[in-house]
Amino acid sequence: TEWPVFVSIASDALVDGAKVATSNVPEGYMVVEENGVWTVIEATTVSTAQELATAAAAGQDVFLTSDITVANGEVGHPYGDGSVAVYQKGGVINGNGHSLVVTEGRTNTCGVISAGGTLKNISIDAFRGIQIYNATEKVVLDGVTSKGKNTCYFFNTAEGNSTQDVELNNCTFGGWGSWSLIKSATFNNCTFVLGEYYTNIYGRLLKPYVNTVFNNCKFNADYYLDLSSLGENQTVTFVNCTV
């Protein structure tokens, strides 16, 4: 087709070897398959850590076109200490099935820091896989895997004013999860496995500080739920979960 024309094709309509060719898609557009549908979208494509960091900080909708491996200090961090971070300020980061790996650094080394927006279809392995930092809008994780040999925290919070919700759907997590400084956290259809970075409790600990709901989630039998810091009048609810 000529451009700009926006089409949507059901995946199961492609039979007898039919394929979607994307080689002539102009800059600024992507053809992607999601939830059984091929569709044309507007998006910024990135293939390096610096491109990803720049686009995410500008709140752009971003698609990864390759796996990204970064070293400590390669891109900036809101703490100002030079540690690795992709700082998301709204918009959508779609990993498109690719991975983001941080191989060096500890403590403040992060995969993605989010102040709001959607993070989806990506695998992350970093000391702090996903960190919420001064969120100004709702944060959504969808189809995210956060675990690996570099991961201590699969998910945690840094600073904020406790007014934003976090929703985590269809994710796989391994390691230590700790969340405060947000309004609430809701995990839907998530799987929790043991972390690889630590073999002690930090690789198998969930520590909520605020209202939290687990819907249809699966937990490794050796996980610990630490309620020692749960706030007053805050609750943790499990619905149809399995161990």
**DSSP helix count?**
1
- Low-pLDDT windows of residues: none
Query: Span from first to last CA?
Result: 50 Å
Computed Rg: 19 Å
Q: Provide the helix percentage.
A: under 10%
Largest sheet: 19 strands, parallel
Query: Would you list the SSEs in sequence order as H and E?
Result: EEEEHEEEEEEEEEEEEEEEEEE
Mean pLDDT value: 87
Residue share in β-strands: 35-45%
Which word captures the global form?
A: globular
Give me the count of strands: 22
By helix and strand content, what is the structural category?
mainly beta
Task: Describe the 3D structure.
This protein is mainly beta. Helix content is 4%, strand content 45%. The protein has 1 helix and 22 strands. The strands form 2 sheets. The protein has a 19-stranded parallel β-sheet that branches. It has a 3-stranded antiparallel β-sheet with strand order 1-3-2, with no helix packed on it. Strand 2 and strand 3 form a beta hairpin. The longest helix is centred in the first third of the chain and has 9 residues. 37% of the residues are buried. The mean pLDDT is 87.
Quick summary of this structure?
By secondary structure, this protein is mainly β. 4% of the residues lie in helices and 45% in strands. The radius of gyration is 19 Å and the shape is globular.
